[in-house]
Each structure stands twice: as structure tokens, then as C-alpha cells.
Amino acid sequence: MSVFIELLRQYRDELERHYDSHITDDIRQAMAAMLRCQTEQQGRSQWFCSHCHHDDRLPLSCGHRHCPQCQHRTTSDWLERQKQKLLPVHYYMATFTLPYELRELARQHPKALYQAMFTVASSVLKDFAQTEHKGELGFTIVLHTHSRQRNLHPHLHVIVAGGRYDASRQQWHKGNKRYLFNAFALAKVWRARLLDAIVHDDVMSLPKSVPNKWVVDCRCVGFGLPALQYLSRYLYRGVLPDKDIIKVTDTEVTFRYLDSQTNTHQTRTLPVLKFLWLILQHVLPKGMQRVRDYGFLRGNAKQTRVRIQLLLLALFYCTPHKEQPVRSKAVRACPCCDHEMACVGVSRPS
């Protein structure tokens, strides 16, 4: 059982009393799902081994995307789908950061703000590419809401394929290995457009003070797979894995994190309730997609990707990817004979 879920079960009533005005319906639903996960309330799956005829029943997982016990297969499936889209070109990682002064908006209006961030970041990249008149970009945007210390810190990571595809000429334009766009220019446009989106939104309003300088980082990350693997670790496995919770007492929780400045592990100790809220504040609004594909990497652009792969096959002598539907099945080894067991049914509580 997850350490976080055990703490949530033990301190739920106290947490709800202390943070009642901050707990949204989405957070309440996430809490309820996690507390049902792998319990009799969730139901059971029945497994059968055709080799030794052993039969077993196991409690079902909740499947909630914020549950630390679930979504491992979802992460693996996403990574496999992204691997099928990889091209034999250099990739870039662009990071669009939200300044500290606007983070309160993420607490008050997360759905509106995060949607605006996706819309603005994608439009900025598309428009910068359009000015070069070389064709369409392909990129994937991933929303992260926390810093390494797990504080609220919304930002977008964007994996961009290094090149453009001109559909009218069916021509691939190779990108610069070390340069995508000027990061300072990206930051200026990112700031202006996001502030404009907030001003014209029906529910959000700007704080009194907004910094003039925003940060967009843009760098080459090689051939893409390491960056995808890095992002996949944070997509569907919860905010803090159990292995990083190193000490729990009746009053405090200590966890470790990797400090980006020193590249060493540091520890942080918080009262139990504050720790629980630190994690729960990152629950996303219902219907909010954390990952989105754009350009020739979007889901309905498969034919375009095949044409690009054939072009690159001629240029770089690579083997084009044959995209297949990716969804791994649940498997379990028999505890008696170690053969693969089959799931033969699911029972739900009445």
C-alpha cells in the first residue's frame, strides 16, 4: 500500500477540516478514488493459471490518474506511442515557465489558466516557425505543475522535432542542430500573449504586480528518446513516488528530491497535513489533458508522418516506423508455477 494513501486514510478528517475551503470537487474525487484503490470497495479481479490450475482473486486498482499506485501501464503505453512517432532528427526541449506572481491563479482558476498556457505556447511556436516559411513544426507539450520540492510551479515542457515539413511541396527542411528559436524572443512573446489571454478571460484577473522578465529555456536534447523518457516519469505516476518518502513520524514527513543546482539529493520535512496538501494541490481539473501533440505529431496526422519518414528514409537511410495501436494488457505470473495467468473476470461490490 502506498505510504501517501496510508497517511491520507489516517489524516483525512483532519485534512478536510483544515483545508476545507481549498479542497475542490476534483481533489475530493481524487482522494475518494485513492482511498478505494486496491480495497474491497473497488472490487476484485479473478485470475486463472491454465498450467497448474491455480486461481486467485486480487483487489482492483482505482485507475485514477493521480493515484500513486496506478497508471504504470498508462505511462509505458504513452512512451511506446511516442517512440513510434520519433524521427531520426535532433530534438529540442523548450520550457515555458510561469512567474511566481501568477501562481495564485493556478490555485484559483487552474482549468482556465492551464488551457491558456497550452493555447499560447502552441501559437507562439507555430508563429515563429511560420516566419521562416519552411513548413510545419511537430511538437508535444507536457504540463508539469510542481517544482522539484513539490511546490506549485506550473510550466510547460515542449519536445520539438528538429525540422519542418512543407506539405505543399512534400519537402522536409532540416533544422539547425543547436538552434531552434531565440529564447529571449520566445519569452517576450510568451509573456505578452499569456497576459493578453488572462486579461480577456471571463474568470481570471491579473495580479497587481507582474514581472517584466519571463523565462523560456530552449536547448537541443539529442535524438529525442531521453527527453521522452524523462517526461514519462512524471506523467501518470503521481507527484511523489514512495521511494522518495524516507521518514514518517506521528507529526512529520520527510522526503528527498534532486536539487537542480547541485545535482545532489536534498531532504524536506513538513508537518503531515501540510505534506498531504502539498501533493493534493497538483490534482488537475476533470477533463484537463496533461499531454497534447501538435503539427505533424498530432493523432490524425499519421499519413503525414509516414510521408516524412519515407523522405527521411531517402535522406538518412533509416527504417520508417510502422505505427501500431499501443495498449499493453494486464499480466501476472502465477505464484505457484510462474506461468502467465489470465484474467477471467471482475467482480464489483453490490
UniProtKB/TrEMBL annotation:
Signal peptide: none annotated. InterPro entries: Transposase_32, Zn_Tnp. Pfam families: Y2_Tnp (PF04986), Zn_Tnp_IS91 (PF14319). Residues 138-301 form the Transposase IS801/IS1294 domain. Residues 8-98 form the Transposase zinc-binding domain. GO terms for biological process: DNA transposition. One of its GO terms (molecular function) is DNA binding. This is Transposase zinc-binding domain-containing protein.
